[in-house]
């Protein structure tokens, strides 16, 4: 196994992690920001107000984006298995 092969596999793995995590985190971050702006504009300092919308958006992101994320992860796993001869030989 050459260093370039290892670096390529590590880069692909890190990209996959960032892609799958951002699928869930980014919508929750956007909703949290919108709720925070709303709370600052109306001077409502309720901690539980931001929890429910973020929870709902996170669950919706998992429901709607989960199939795509699982397919990307399965494609990556197949690619890793296909690269075994390159790594061993």
TrEMBL record:
<keyword id="KW-1133">Transmembrane helix</keyword>
<keyword id="KW-0472">Membrane</keyword>
<dbReference type="GO" id="GO:0009425">
    <property type="term" value="C:bacterial-type flagellum basal body"/>
</dbReference>
<comment type="similarity">
    <text>Belongs to the FliQ/MopD/SpaQ family.</text>
</comment>
<keyword id="KW-0812">Transmembrane</keyword>
<keyword id="KW-0969">Cilium</keyword>
<dbReference type="GO" id="GO:0044780">
    <property type="term" value="P:bacterial-type flagellum assembly"/>
</dbReference>
<keyword id="KW-0966">Cell projection</keyword>
<keyword id="KW-0282">Flagellum</keyword>
<dbReference type="InterPro" id="IPR006305">
    <property type="entry name" value="FliQ"/>
</dbReference>
<feature type="transmembrane region" description="Helical">
    <location>
        <begin position="51"/>
        <end position="70"/>
    </location>
</feature>
<keyword id="KW-0975">Bacterial flagellum</keyword>
<dbReference type="InterPro" id="IPR002191">
    <property type="entry name" value="Bac_export_3"/>
</dbReference>
<comment type="function">
    <text>Role in flagellar biosynthesis.</text>
</comment>
<dbReference type="Pfam" id="PF01313">
    <property type="entry name" value="Bac_export_3"/>
</dbReference>
<dbReference type="GO" id="GO:0009306">
    <property type="term" value="P:protein secretion"/>
</dbReference>
<keyword id="KW-1003">Cell membrane</keyword>
<feature type="transmembrane region" description="Helical">
    <location>
        <begin position="13"/>
        <end position="39"/>
    </location>
</feature>
<protein>
    <recommendedName>
        <fullName>Flagellar biosynthetic protein FliQ</fullName>
    </recommendedName>
</protein>
<dbReference type="GO" id="GO:0005886">
    <property type="term" value="C:plasma membrane"/>
</dbReference>
């Amino acid at each position: 196994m050459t260093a370039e092969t290892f670096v390529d596999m590590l880069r692909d793995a890190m990209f996959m992690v960032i892609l799958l995590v951002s699928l869930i985190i980014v919508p929750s971050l956007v909703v949290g920001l919108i709720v925070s702006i709303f709370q600052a504009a109306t001077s409502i300092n309720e901690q539980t107000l931001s929890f429910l919308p973020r929870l709902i958006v996170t669950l919706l992101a998992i429901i709607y984006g989960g199939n795509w994320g699982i397919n990307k992860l399965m494609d990556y796993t197949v690619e890793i298995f296909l690269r075994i001869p390159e790594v061993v030989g």
